[in-house]
Amino acid sequence: MSAYAGRHAELYDLFYADKPYGDEASFVHRCIQELSPLHVSRLLELACGTGQHSFGFEKLGYQVVATDYSNDMLEQAKRKAAVLASGVDFRFSDMRDLRLAGEVFDCAVCLFDSIGYVETNEALINVLNGVYRHLRPGGLFIFEFWHAAAMLVHFEPVRVRRWEFEGSKILRISETTLNIERQLARVNYSIYEFRPDGCYVFLQEVQKNRYFLIQEVAFMLESANFKPIRWFSGFCWDAPICEDSWHILAVAQKVSCKSRQTKQS
Fold first, then answer.
1. Angle, vertex CA 206, rays to CA 113 and CA 165, nearest 5
2. Which tens digit of pLDDT belongs to each residue from 110-167?
3. Which of its termini does the chain have fewer beta carbons within 10 Å around, N or C?
């Protein structure tokens, strides 16, 4: 799995400063209000990163347990939580082997396409099984993934972005290649931090993220005893899903193994 490490984790919030975390948390909140059969108070977040969605969910009234695979990202989240006097419970956890001491939640979320970091079918089923174990019956799993239809047509092989931060100038070059057979996007990040003293620091990190078609995700959900409820084009309630839909937000509900077997028979 991919992990933002060291200075890359420290710069993460700069790179995504324009991401509308609060609006996205509010959209998920609407999904919960309109689609959940349960009253949702306890929420589990997978791949929470530096906690920006987590803080948004907390403001909306949820009790949040937020997990991530990167200790460096969690450190950034905990620092912000201390400043904000936040009660979000940040924990280290690999979503492929989710074990939270028997704790049960009303809803689970995994945003910013992080579900794709697990790469393989087996790993994804492990994630779904782990979420299933930690959800109340009828609980929702809401997650976002890269849409294969858009990725295959519109992906950019090279992207260059620039920022200024604490007196430094930062250049990030993202080079993307696709492995069509495995449905993986391999992104090589080259980061140059030009400091006021004339020196520069070079960082490099490679990440892999899987892109999916909706029907394959639906099949995997059903195989893990989840019922797909809704598919959204990004965080838009009524927008049609098409080849320009980069991100799909899935809403699925935990169903009992017994009820699924009854339906199949």
1. 80
2. 999 999 999 999 999 999 999 999 999 999 999 999 999 999 999 999 999 999 988 9
3. C
Number of Cβ within a 10 Å radius of residue 74? 23
Would you tell me the crossing angle of helices 21-35 and 52-59 to the nearest 10 degrees? 50
C-alpha span between 163 and 54 (Å, rounded): 25
> Helix crossing, 71-84 with 7-15: angle to 10°?
60
Residue 38 and residue 35: Cα distance in Å, rounded? Answer: 9
Question: Which residue from 92, 105, 93 is spatially nearest to 43, judged by alpha carbons?
Answer: 105
User: In order of start, what are the domains of the chain with their CATH numbers?
Assistant: 7-147+212-264 (3.40.50.150), 151-210 (2.20.25.110)
Q: Reply yes or no on whether the pLDDT at 265 is more than 50.
A: no
How big is the CA angle at 156 (ends 152 and 159), to the nearest 5 degrees? Answer: 160
What pLDDT, on the 0 to 100 scale, is given for residue 257?
Answer: 73
Residue 259 confidence (pLDDT): 53
Instruction: Return the residue matching tokens 């989240």.
Output: 77
Q: State residue 222 phi and psi, 5-degree precision.
A: -65, -35
- Per 3-state DSSP, the chain is made up of helix, strand and coil in percentages (nearest 5) of 35, 35, 30
The two tokens of residue 127 are: 């994630």
Sequence-ordered strand ranges (E) for 111-217 = 135-147, 158-165, 168-179, 184-194, 200-212
Relative orientation angle of helices 71-84 and 52-59, to the nearest 10 degrees: 40
Closest by CA position to 91, among listed 126, 128, 31, 47: 47
CA 98 to chain centre: 15
Portion of the chain with pLDDT greater than 90, in percent: 92
